[in-house]
Design brief:
CATH architecture: Orthogonal Bundle
Number of strands: 0
CATH topology: Hypothetical protein af1432
CATH class: Mainly Alpha
Distance between the termini: 51 Å
Strand content: under 5%
Mean pLDDT: 90
Helix content: 55-70%
Radius of gyration: 16 Å
CATH superfamily: Hypothetical protein af1432
Shape: globular
Order of helices and strands: HHHHHHHHHH
């Protein structure tokens, strides 16, 4: 049984791994250290009652695809369950020749993987999207529609992807509060996009 104390050595180790791995990165919308994103993802998961393994996977969900941390390292440190969650959420961004793979293909693969994986994977993806969409909404309200120029695709495609994540999360998690929160936020973001058109 996991401790209900406010401190967990495993969580601390995962936070350190994420902080070191993401040290060279900044958030797309600011000069904030990238690690603020996975930290928020893990806090969202804990707030919604998910286990420490799920929160740790939330902290580490981008270290494989963005920073090349080996899944074997995650498994050795945090166990096969955490490594499995991270594997399910890690995009393959480049093909065998080193060329960047199309955004649409990668995002469809993520949706397909989340649809077939354990429900906890859908929760992590929902928390990830919740934080990203919330940051985007704040940026759009502050800076206007030009915010969408920072993204690989424009507002319509990004919003469509967020809506598809809501749909898959609903399929996997039902009426869980994390899905409700994400659905409300994506609808709010959609309203801002409609205003800007």
């Amino acid at each position: 049984m996991e401790s209900k104390r406010g401190y967990s050595e495993r969580y601390e180790q995962a936070l350190r791994m994420a902080a070191v791995a993401h040290r060279p990165q900044s958030r797309k919308s600011s000069d904030l250290p990238y690690v603020t994103h996975p930290f928020h993802v893990s806090v969202i998961l804990l707030r919604h009652g998910f286990s420490m393994d799920v929160a740790i996977a939330g902290l580490l969900h981008d270290v494989v695809e963005d920073q090349g941390i080996a899944l074997s390292e995650i498994e050795a440190e945090f166990g096969p369950r955490v490594a499995g969650f991270v594997a399910a959420l890690s995009e393959c961004k480049r093909d065998a020749q080193g060329n960047r793979r199309p955004w649409e293909v990668r995002k469809q693969e993520v949706l397909d993987c989340v649809r077939q994986a354990a429900p906890e994977v859908a929760a992590i993806k929902a928390a990830d999207t919740l934080h990203n969409a919330r940051c985007t909404l704040q940026d759009v309200r502050r800076d206007g529609p030009e915010v969408w120029q920072r993204f690989n695709r424009g507002a319509a495609l990004q919003l469509d992807y967020y809506r598809r994540i809501v749909q898959v999360a609903r399929e996997r998690l039902g009426d869980h509060a994390i899905v409700d929160e994400l659905a409300e936020l994506v609808a709010e973001l959609g309203g801002e996009v409609d205003k800007g058109e």
